[in-house]
Amino acid sequence: MITDLRLLLGPGKTQILTRYVAWTLLYGVLSGIAAALLVPVIADLASGDWDVIDNHLAALAIVTLAAGVVRYIQTVRGSKAALQTLTSTHQRLGDHLVSLPLGWFDGDRTGRLTRVATDGTIMITGIFAHLLAPLVVSVAAPITVTIALFWYDWRLGLATALSIPVLALAFRFAAASVARGDARNHAADVAAGARVIEFGQKQQVLRAFGRSGYEPLEQTIEQQRRIRRRTISQAVVGLSVSGLAVQLAVTVLMLVGVWLALDGSLAPTTAVALIALSFRFAGPLADVSEYAGAIRLAGNDLRRLTDVLREKGMPEPKVSAPLTHPGQVELDHVTFGYQTPVLRDFSLTIPAGSVTALVGPSGAGKTTVIRLISRFWDTQQGAVRVGGVDVRDLRTDDLTSQIALVFQDVYLFDDTLAANIRLGRPEATDAELAEAARLAGVDEIVTRLPHGWDTQIGEGGAALSGGERQRVSIARALLKRAPIVLLDEATAALDPETERYLQRSIRQLAKHSTVLLIAHRLTNVVDADQIAVVNQGHVVEVGTHESLIAADGAYARLWRAKSTGQGWRLSPGASRTQTRAWCSRA
Ligand SMILES: Nc1ncnc2c1ncn2[C@@H]1O[C@H](COP(=O)(O)OP(=O)(O)OP(=O)(O)O)[C@@H](O)[C@H]1O
């Protein structure tokens, strides 16, 4: 746990934790000494030895006072350490997440991450407020008491020391059973959470098919209930075993004390005082048994957090290499796949200042090309160069400053329309914002919105239509004025107005930038300087509209199919589904 906390704090900040643990340890030792000092005080009282009782009482008072002061310092340091850990956890998590390849966020990882971040934050506060100090004290005080028992009578000390490994085993067992259950609970909770989100998001489809329930969700919830029941029964067994072990240790210590008193080795009052002291040994240990489960749970949550930090990010240079061909993009014999290969030996050069269109059937790998240029993933073979430099030799901020992205699925933040566009270049003036909005046709939307520019456009831009969202996204790109614009045209049919604005925006973008356009409508392709036809992960043809028509290859077939309304086929290998999908878009 301490290793995980140190990792969360990050280099240079771990001494705050070390100092806190040291103060807590000191408090535990002082508590143990205070308890041990009760033995001579009780013995003095019983024997009526008033000459020395004052000394023992004074020592007890000093140690108790010191324990109080140390406790105060330890609590203050605990709050500071908790705050510091929370702050650096969020910071380090944020810094690390941006370095992870986007592929990492696939599947249920996003749901898992949300849970890890929420639970982890609560758990860090809990660790400092309720766990770490009691744990350290519950271990330090009994060890001090054991040493004191050795000091008073070695036989009692030995009996106490021998019970420690037995108790440790019992606590381990309890903690392990709770932790195992927690791991299962966590997996079940994540699965149920993901299904609930899916259920919410897919309401439209479910209702369209007249489904009120959702079987996968019901099954996951039932599974979650079963796992929780099993976990509780296992935890009860573990905690009972450790509780029993503590009771057993106390009984053995009492018997040894009684035996020593009957034997005459110890005065009865000293024996009673030592038995009382052995309770001070067992009490905190019993707490450890209770904390055992909570500590393991906290450890699990912490480990899930630190596992994210241990996840390998994409390597980045400290300083970016200088651009040799500003504005140019090149894919050089690139091979890449997610689970299965998507691009195979893919080569394409997009000259600076040109407009290049990528066309091809659905699933050919066009969006993947854009993702690799933006370094959402690294290639498995070959290189992607932006401005003549391998993207792996550019720092993320330098790469992103070169690129403006317009995705098919435009994500709008739950903020005002103006703020959503300003995201492209936060320091842009109002006039620049208005100009970008005008070119992309957003100013028309503004007049329709109830609060104009200040209208909150809702999470995911729910208040805007698909076409309107694309316009906002294009306005962002126009505002950014990046040297390279990567535009994944919406597959859904755009209204003629949006279509017109899109073409106007492309022309405007092309004045200052290199444009790579994934085109689903041939109207946007004809004027391109270069058209690359992609099929099954390869570039099968490159040229202008005229040269490709003259070559009478795949592009020409597509063009004819569009004109005659018949199906088109890039190659004999292209599936009918791909063909139909392409037709419907073209
Ligand atoms: N995150 C991902 N994980 C796994 N496979 C993926 C992922 N993204 C895309 N793919 C797969 O990679 C292949 C290429 O997808 P890509 O989105 O690049 O195609 P595309 O040509 O842009 O298609 P479309 O025209 O339909 O947008 C497809 O088979 C797709 O299922």
UniProtKB/TrEMBL annotation:
Domain ABC transporter: 303-561
SMART domains: AAA
Keywords: ATP-binding, Membrane, Nucleotide-binding, Transmembrane, Transmembrane helix
Domain ABC transmembrane type-1 stretches: 28-297
InterPro entries in UniProt: AAA+_ATPase, ABC1_TM_dom, ABC1_TM_sf, ABC_transporter-like_ATP-bd, ABC_transporter-like_CS, P-loop_NTPase, Type_1_exporter
Residue ranges of the TM segments: 20-43, 55-73, 131-152, 158-175, 235-262
Positions in coiled-coil regions: none
Membrane topology: Multi-pass membrane protein
PROSITE patterns: ABC_TM1F, ABC_TRANSPORTER_1, ABC_TRANSPORTER_2
A molecular-function term among this protein's GO annotations: ATP binding
Predominant cellular place of this UniProt entry's protein: membrane
Subcellular location: Cell membrane
Protein name as it appears in the record: ABC transporter ATP-binding protein/permease
Organism: Kibdelosporangium philippinense
